[in-house]
Fold this protein.
Amino acid sequence: MNENRNSFKGSIGFVLAAAGSAVGLGNIWRFPYLAAKDGGGLFLVIYIVLALTFGFTLLTTEIAIGRKTKQSPLTAYSKLKSKWKPLGIIACIVPIMIFPYYVTIGGWVLKYLLVYITGNGHAAAQDGYFSGFIGQTAEPIIMMLVFTIIVAFIIFRGVNSGIESSSKIIMPLLIVLVLGVSVYSLTISYTDIDGTTRTGLQGLGAYVIPNMKGITVKQFCTVLMDAMGQLFYSLSVAMGIMIAYGSYVSDDAKVINSLVEKGCEIEGEVKNSVIFPGVKIGKNSKVFNSVIMSDTTIEENVIVNKAILAENVFVEKNTVIGDNKEIVVIGKGEIVKSNAVK
């Protein structure tokens, strides 16, 4: 039986929704705490390096798995290989463990939002307000339930009307808030009891400039592990979340500035990408400004333009290859047009 599944209407909606799952309390709350604990700039540099290497690989792989299988995290791995079924079970256990404390903290956020909207923000900033709130019997539970109902309502509305639509509103607001807080933090200052004044700009310097003075191997390893742990919070990887989101990405969506790995099947429009051996480019696709490596299959009615093709690329009939930098096609099929640059 074929299951009709909705998909994200556009790449912007997908990016905002994926960012919404990643950029949350793990970044806004936990990241500054770890950065301050681990020496600011050193933690930041290690985190950026891990994000651009290890994190990027995990993120793109999980999205690709979801897009290829069109399955939930529970069954996506087993569809790729039956022996990988336990990975899907583990990936689903992680969100179950996260859920209880996330909805609890979500209730806290909702409480503070209501307090600030009603003009009582000054009272909420006073010592003892938070402990007084969470020490109550009913109100924290009520706020948690209200938050859970709001989230459930968005999810039940579906990918398009729920997650994608709400992300297009909430994420821009979050960006404005983060920028506002960032600019404001640079303008503040604090004077200690001994008369020493610290400014926001000094704090920014400590945050972005690594300080290796006196650091030991043990301390460096601690910072490394903290940065790697933060990476999972920041990118929502190894939790099945990106596999779920990837399963709702349309096959016709554009693949831009990407590395398409062996065993993948791509359809739609591909730009500025490197297509590795063993990839199948589906029917009616368009490939521009890309490198197509050997042992790639190009199916019917595909347009390839301004690309570099390696040897042993299998081309099916009615494929248009024009204005390319280099064409060395060895395989069956009829090439309708070929204007290779000499």
Remarks:
- The longest strand covers residues 319-322.
- Confidence is low (pLDDT under 50) at residues 323-342.
- The CA atoms of residues 270 and 287 lie 5 Å apart.
- The two ends are 51 Å apart (CA to CA).
